[in-house]
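WARN  no MSA supplied for this record, continuing single-sequence
INFO  ligand: protoporphyrin IX containing FE
INFO  echoing inputs
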Amino acid sequence: MSENAPRPDDFDFTDPDVQDCPYEAYRALRDQAPVYRDPRTGQYVITRFDDLRQVLLDTENFGNGGRRAVDPAALSERQRRMLAVYEEKEGWLPEPTLAARDDPNHRQMRAMFDKAFRPGKIRQLDPFVESTANRLFDAFIDEGRCDWVRQFAVPLPLIVIGHQMGVKEEDIWFIKRATDAWVRRFGQMLSEEEERECIEAEIDAQHYFKKVFDRLREEPDDTLLSDLVNTEIPEWGRTLTDGELQAEMMSDTFVGGSETSTNAIAEGVRMLIERPDLWAQLKSDPDAHLRTFVEEVLRLESPVQVLGRVAINDVEMHGVTIPAGASIGTRYAAANRDERRFERPDEADLERKNPMAHLTFGAGVHYCLGAPLARRELYYSFRTLAERVDELWFAPEKNDFRHHPHMFLRALKELHIEFRPA
Ligand code: HEM
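INFO  complex generated
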């Protein structure tokens, strides 16, 4: 390491510029402070591949916060005011999601979700994903240009997950308003007034979803949501309550299942324009290269940059004692570029051996439930692009390549492209 190399403290992860391009910061942390106590957030940030994998697999020492809902004693005045909005507007207070539970409670709930999202069921969605991708292309292909984020990367996953979660296609932009609000709030960069507006948008969506739950209880169908609404968890002796379902709709399925895939679909196209050799390779033989390309996009541009764990016991790593109760930052995106694990980690390589061995979807018991669906969405997005477009480039002077400011997710705001149709 050179003497002039930047130091971990030079970077502020709450700064939108660092969020826009965090890779230099990640390298500094991996090299100099693999267990880094962030002075601004108090979090212990893990950035090396092997360390992160160890944390994710070690559920004895690292939990997801238990199944406790918010502890009223620990709330700030502002948090109390925000929770009161749910009561005022007759919404459902946030319940612990699947992702926020620990075993045995998590295992019991996850078994039911695994059954709903079983591989055979997800495979059946292929024709719908592919035809949706083509339909979206039909709307702009003749113009030779589009905002790839707004006209493709956002609607595709939203329509696919909406179709499975009881949301009609004409209503997806109404739901998007609520998921955007949820994501902004999760990003922890809002004023109180803005946060209140976000909660109100979430509550509007809750009222919409409540009608869907009631309908599916009366008339079950073959959607994923119908299974989630109607399947009893044997150990609990009951199905999920409206409040538990509401939490899953917003955070685990709509946000978890659309904002994330959107970001990868957007960054993948940016990557193809920046690297014409990749585009040429993909075009020459999509069957040979598409699956690896999807994995390289996921590894290099991890849509979920970081989530968290809570230390259950005191744990020592790299000479740092992480005290019980401390919050851990699981920087998937940093681990995915760890030179100790990957050769030429910053480069997309369509010949990479074992391309699925990244941590973009986590690892262990909380491994992303939607990974097979996300992979299909990316696959059909890039496949349709390769089939319907011969050449593509950035629209001149229209892109600043900025991302939405966010502590956890990395999402391009827009991506204006032009192309020559096939
Ligand atoms: C590119 C797209 C996606 C990315 C990058 C992503 C990433 C992640 C990550 C990092 C986790 C946490 C893993 C851990 O804690 O170790 C997770 C969990 C989860 N994801 Fe995804 N996800 C994506 C798509 C989806 C989709 C399409 C769905 C559902 C339709 C989904 C639903 C979930 C759920 C329910 C969990 C919680 C699982 C549990 O705690 O047992 N995700 N995802």
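The longest helix spans residues 242-274.
INFO  checksum written, moving to next record
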